[in-house]
Design a protein that fits this description.
This protein is of the alpha/beta class. 43% of the residues lie in helices and 15% in strands. It has helices spanning 7-15, 61-72, 87-96, 108-114, 123-129, 141-146, 148-167, 177-186, 193-198, 205-209, 221-235, 253-257, and strands at 4-6, 20-28, 34-37, 53-56, 81-84, 101-104, 118-122, 134-140.
């Protein structure tokens, strides 16, 4: 089994011929990733990023969204100093004043916003422009077929956990056991966790098995998002080939069994 991955790195993996498939949408990124600028940068919009240092993890969904937004705004990526940094490096660079902006997710997102950062673009904004993103659970297809009962049980448990959250959002407070556990695992402050969770979307098993996400073959939401992402990544020189059919990298059967 592979770890979870965003839709952009998942697309890159599929385009490189890895025998993978998405079996569950861990979260619709929705508003969970944001482009934040420092107060001293003087940046107010995307055009203001020209010549500025913008940090984001290479090949991540944030990186993809940044490139997509720049292209949509008619701003050549080469006009912006895009720096490849991991989340902890971004947090440190922000504190030192080494960067002007960052496109990133929590817990670093909350830290830099608390440090005077101003949001000028979110993943929800980029989705409206035509580039939705998500985090997915991906597996080796052959391994999953040989361990179908285990993968089904895992997906069913994820569906149960998501359902609990959707039905009990108010219970996820700063001092709740669930929030404290999440904060400990991801290295976030408990006070930042409830808002971070609320910024994601957690589709249920029925939605995931439908055309909205994993069902419907080529017409599934996930397959179409991967295909669109692949075209863009190829234009940017991030991948060399675009698979003809992304439906082979999406499997709705586990979600259907978890309903």
């Amino acid at each position: 089994m592979y770890p979870s991955a965003g839709s952009s790195p998942t697309t890159a993996a599929a385009a490189q011929g890895l025998d993978i498939e998405i079996v569950w949408i861990l979260g619709d990124i929705n508003n969970a990733e944001q482009l934040v600028v420092t107060a001293k940068s003087g940046v107010k919009d995307l055009a203001g990023l020209k010549g500025k240092k913008v940090a984001t993890p290479l090949a991540s969904t944030s990186h993809y969204q940044l490139l997509f937004a720049l292209k949509n705004a008619g701003i050549p990526a080469k006009d912006v100093q895009i720096l490849n940094m991991r989340p902890p490096e971004i947090a440190a660079a922000w504190e030192r004043g080494d960067i002007d902006a960052a496109f990133i997710w929590d817990p670093v997102l909350s830290k830099i916003k608390a440090g005077g950062g101003k949001v000028i673009l979110s993943s929800a904004d980029v989705a409206k422009l035509g580039a939705p993103t998500f985090d997915a659970l991906i597996v080796n297809k052959g391994w999953a077929e040989n361990n179908r009962d285990f993968v089904t049980a895992l997906v069913r448990e994820l569906a149960r956990a998501d359902a609990y959250y959707r039905a009990n959002r108010a219970a996820f407070t700063n001092d709740s056991a669930q929030v404290r556990a999440i904060a400990r695992i991801v290295g976030a402050a408990p006070a930042d966790v409830p808002a971070a969770l609320a910024s994601y979307g957690f589709p249920n098993a029925e939605e995931q098995a439908s055309r909205t996400w994993l069902g419907g073959g080529k017409d599934s939401g996930a397959a179409k998002a991967l295909a669109s992402t692949a075209v863009f990544l190829k234009e940017q020189g991030r991948i060399t080939e675009v698979p003809e059919d992304f439906s082979r990298f999406v499997d709705p059967n586990y979600a259907a069994a978890a309903r």
